[in-house]
Records
---
Amino acid sequence: MSDDRSVDGAGEGSADDLTHTTAEGDVQMVDVGDKPDSERRAVAAGEIRLQPATIEAIRADEIGKGDVLATARIGAIQAVKHTWETIPMCHQIPITNVDTEFDLEEDRIELRVGVETTGKTGCEMEALEGVTTGLNVVWDMVKAVEKDADGQYPDTGIENVRVLEKEKRQREE
């Protein structure tokens, strides 16, 4: 499936196919005004690598800052809703639903964020923003127990952020 934010399906190709620049090389927002509304969904995922003891502390709700996953869920949802403010060429889109799902493994937490909208452009950037912010919130909540004696984070890392799926369905009228 092509990138919904490109014009006429241009996704790969030459510099002449770039949709966010003018012929003169100036940055521009893509005009989606003539595109029909469609139901869209995107799911992104990523993971944060943590020490096993940190994962156990999260499971037992023993992190001093509070409920890590509840706070990360709120952060992810806020990020989805504000993507247009942080990604310069993203359109402000009506978010109709956000799903967040955490999977705790022995040494990592995976976060999946599903975003739905009905509009003229896709929502994969919103899903990615939800994942990265949600994982950053986890890091912020656990940094006191993750850092080593030198104040560094040798076991902590955000990895494998990606779009898992993207759907576009034309609205039936």
---
Amino acid sequence: MDFRQAIQNHRVIAALRKEEELASLEGTDPTVCFLLFGEINTAADVVKRVKSMGKQVYLHIDLAQGFGNDRAALRYIRSQVQPDGIVSTRTHLIRSAREEGLFAIQRLFIPDTMSVETGKHLLKQSRADAVEVMPGVVPKWVFETLRDSRDIPIVAGGLIRGEDDIRSAFKNGASAVSVSSRGLWNQKV
């Protein structure tokens, strides 16, 4: 199952901020998990554990400790850690990850109109497989503009605190939402 199919099965992505949250992931509905923590010595075991739950796992390499900002780190992640893909704000890492055969999700911060234009440019440069827009509670035109730039899945992340925020993100055009609140992981919207 690829990323698009996985988020169609369940549109809420579990975003884990620390290893202790892994136990809470067991038996939940999300088919996709973003790891917003980690370190080089334990990442492979954590990824294996999440995969054993039947979930896809994407490692946020900017937040994981011990990995470099280069192609060698990406090769190590692909061969030794073996996530389904990576998440990063760094355009060069997204582009290199794709060249190394990793599914790559570019995280964009959108605080103003200028950053939407910058985001469009970064997505064209990186050729990301998907994009995570932060905060996830942006106006509809932001998702439309980014989708016009590249027809890729858009994940809304950040500042999503309740079911109303999830519904609003989907109404505005998000393909999926990533949330760290365990109470929202099983939402069916």
